[in-house]
Amino acid sequence: MKKLVSIVIPAYNEADNIFVIAESIKKVFSSIAYHYEIILVDDGSADHTLEKIKEYSSTAENIFFLEFSKNFGHQLAVKAGMDHAFGDCVISMDCDMQHPPELIPDMLKKWEEGFEVVYTIREEDKSLSKGKRSSSSLFYKTLNWLSDIDLEPGAADFRLLDQKVVNVFRNFQENEPFLRGLVKWLGFKQYAIRYNPAARFSGKSKYTLKKMFRLALHGVTSFSIKPLYSAVYLGFILSFASVLYIPYIIYAFANNVEVSGWASVIMTIVFFGGLQLIILGIIGIYVGKMFMQTKNRPNYIIRSTNIPQK
Ligand code: UDP
Ligand code: MG
């Protein structure tokens, strides 16, 4: 019996990429002995992505689509695809050809060897802008420093998960899953493959610097409460430092020494005002996450699909 491989592809304004990626996957599977299905997830695109997806899925029986009711973001689009996949393993990859489909046979080989997670690490891409490269490296450094997981720089959302792992994921109800971190956290037998990313086939990246920053902040706060501890430590250090200052003040009072210091008082107020706001903000992020999660809203809403109900 040939095994079934599900390919999950999130798409947000990728009208020109749908055919290209689907055709190149078809080509890859024409030379290996697996059945495959493609699940294209339209993440509330504003262009003709959905039409292209529907058009393509009507040409073959193994092409499925999920249409979100609005844009829920890349991570949830991948999650939705995995939730609906039938395969013995699920491969998630981007729509823009940056994740080379030619790598799929290698990933499957490792899977057959018994690895339950085969993830990929992108080699440093010289063609990417300097801003993108340094923001990406900063992203991983901050993440690893501040949280309890250890992500390799360049870890991509191009990965194969065994059905077992996918089933575990189905029970995750986090409303903002950070898949790269979660996959690492899950354990299982994992294997990393390195690859050279291609240039985007068409369109432009949806990850702006602002989004990267949000993702980093989110990655840290959803994996660890280390930032809360650092607030406590910082508080201790500063209180201790201020205690050391008391003898000097007593001395100044006792000896009638005039201490001038308008500038330093203002500086101190501003500095600590800012610091307190930052720490309050960090606590706020955690409280906000708890609030969002307790509402128990569905993580994503599907408007239409051609996937038969399980
Ligand atoms: N994507 C998505 N929803 C979003 C943003 C992106 O489904 O809100 C998809 C996008 O269509 C692509 C993948 O996620 O298939 C990765 O996005 P992109 O190529 O823009 O990111 P980059 O490769 O620049 O990190
Ligand atoms: Mg891309």
Automatic annotation (TrEMBL):
It is found in: Membrane. It comes from the Bacteria. SUPFAM superfamilies: Nucleotide-diphospho-sugar transferases. Its main location: membrane. InterPro entries: Glyco_trans_2-like, Glycosyltransferase_2, Nucleotide-diphossugar_trans. The keyword Transmembrane helix applies. GO terms for molecular function: glycosyltransferase activity. Coiled coil: none annotated. The chain crosses the membrane at residues 231-250, 262-287. It is a multi-pass membrane protein. The keyword Membrane applies. Keywords: Glycosyltransferase, Membrane, Transferase, Transmembrane, Transmembrane helix. Residues 6-143 form the Glycosyltransferase 2-like domain. GO terms for cellular component: plasma membrane. Pfam families: Glycos_transf_2 (PF00535). This is Glycosyltransferase family 2 protein. It comes from Pedobacter agri. The lineage of its organism: Bacteria, Pseudomonadati, Bacteroidota, Sphingobacteriia, Sphingobacteriales.
